[in-house]
Design brief:
This protein is 36% helix and 21% strand. The protein is an alpha/beta fold.
Amino acid sequence: MTPTLLRQHPTRTGPAPRADRDARARDWSEIQERMLVPLHESVYERLEVGPATRLLGLRCGSGLALLTAASRGAAVTGVDSARPELLALARQRLLPDAWSTRTRARARIVDGSPGDAADAETPPFTLVTAFEPIGCATGDAERLGALLSAATPLAAHGAAVVLTGWGPPDRCATSSVLRVAAKPADPLRGADSRRPDRRDDLEEVARRAGLRPAGSGRVACPFGYADLGSAVRGLLSTGLFDAAIAATDQAQVDKELREALHPYRRQDGTVWMPNVFRYLIARVP
């Protein structure tokens, strides 16, 4: 693949049009978010999430992981900031008018920081989840650490805190596609500009937040799409390619993505990329 994602065009500034943000949120909730369902379910099964669970979901997005926990009987609170389009979808999923008052009382969506989820009448959380994987962008571990520092005071003694990350690049087919996003950040390094993955990243984040690592696991989460167009839309909805779009243009990034996805396109037109994600279970002291 020819490395064409260089700064050949003026960088645009200002927020994306509202229609684009709404469409991106729908693509996330309808195409991409479900790719991590095996990770959610594996964690919930291991921790026996159920009616006794009081869950705080960090950067909950459009709330699919919260909905899965709620379906197991858990009381769920999701927090996010700067992504109102995704939170609107989370509210539609978790707070529909058709739900009973009793059910809605066990689900909350908070636009803000973890501290904004504090409620004197609500018991401490027994589980905190961060299902947005680290390992793709510089600084994502630091951002997760800041969220944990704000969230853990709201958790009970001994509560589980779940951190997630991408697996090794040789176990994640999508790693090669994500290089399209990385090239504009450091054109001279090109395809090698993605931050190196280290197995102990999650443990370091946990320890810096004052948590005690208590177990881990790996889960296969293949990315499967009906066609090439769906794959492009799903991957763009992650936001990981926004810098590349700002550095070049939408058409150029679409072209690069289609080229990068070509090796994973099957004869029936579907796109299939095997991936492995890792999770860490830590405990609040």
